[in-house]
Amino acid sequence: MKRQLIYTAAILSAAVGALAGYRYFTGTYLPEKRLSDAAEEQQKLIDAVRPETVNINESNDEHTTDPLAPVREVNDDAVGWIYIPGTNIDLPIVQGEDNELYLHNGFNGQYNYELGCPFLDNRCSKDMSGFNSIVYAHNIEGRKMFADIALFRESGFMSEHSNGTLTLPDGSHEVDFFAYLPVQSDSAAYHTFFIDSREQNEYISYLFSASSYTQTYSEKDLLEMENIHILLLSTCTFENKNARGILAGIIN
């Protein structure tokens, strides 16, 4: 009887172990492996089409070619390229017909296990010539996509990484970052339609009031700028379900 009980217990233990192993494989290992493989594949594609920095102030004929042409050969939804030295943000920006497509699909437009690709809000001007342009991307473990936006929570990090480069069809624009905003997904920062300059000024004031700190520019500086172009880089930050972090800059 005792031997039978030991035998039964061993079988049950093995069954429990097998079930736990199966759940780990299907619920943890396999999803992580698929995401890792998708990230590696996307990175190879990105590395192959990364544009050269082109100064828009140079009038030399050799700089008249659209620097994003090779990028759009892979995906004609590509509208720009964002690069922030000292981070892993060196990525293409696409714009879909809605704000869902590139939450789930990669730079080539194919499903990539929710890694996604940085995308411009479909309400914003494709050429980023509007008052504000909002770019979203996931916060993926391993400092992938826009995970490094979290580094800007510390003002000291921004002090040493206050500039980025936004490459558009007309060339490369410097971006001066001035604020980090910890907000919720329904924040007024995600507003994109402005009737007049008064509403634009109210928006600028909101960005400063919602920021955890500001650098480079004061609110007064931005309010006095003519034809200003604001760039917001947004990602999830996980303090709660709707928590978001926004890195705000000026496109020059």
Can you walk through the features of this model?
The chain is an alpha+beta fold and 252 residues long. It has a single domain (61-251), classed as Beta Barrel (Sortase, Chain: A), CATH 2.40.260. 33% of the residues lie in helices and 24% in strands. It contains six helices and eleven strands. It has helices spanning 2-49, 69-74, 101-104, 155-160, 197-210, 219-224; strands at 78-83, 90-94, 119-120, 132-136, 139-140, 144-145, 163-168, 171-184, 213-214, 230-236, 243-251. The strands form two sheets. Strands 1, 2, 3, 4, 7, 8, 9, 10 and 11 form a nine-stranded mixed β-sheet that branches. Strands 5-6 form a two-stranded antiparallel sheet. A hairpin with a 2-residue loop joins strand 7 and strand 8. The longest helix has 48 residues, at 2-49. It is globular. It starts with a helix and ends with a strand.
Largest sheet geometry: 9 strands, mixed
β-strand percent reads 15-25%
Query: What does the radius of gyration come to?
Result: 23 Å
Number of helices: 6
| Mean pLDDT figure | 88
Low-confidence stretches: 14-27
The coarse silhouette is globular
Class, according to the CATH hierarchy?
Mainly Beta
Under CATH, the topology is which?
Answer: Sortase, Chain: A
Q: Span between N and C termini?
A: 83 Å
Q: Which architecture would the CATH scheme give at its second level?
A: Beta Barrel
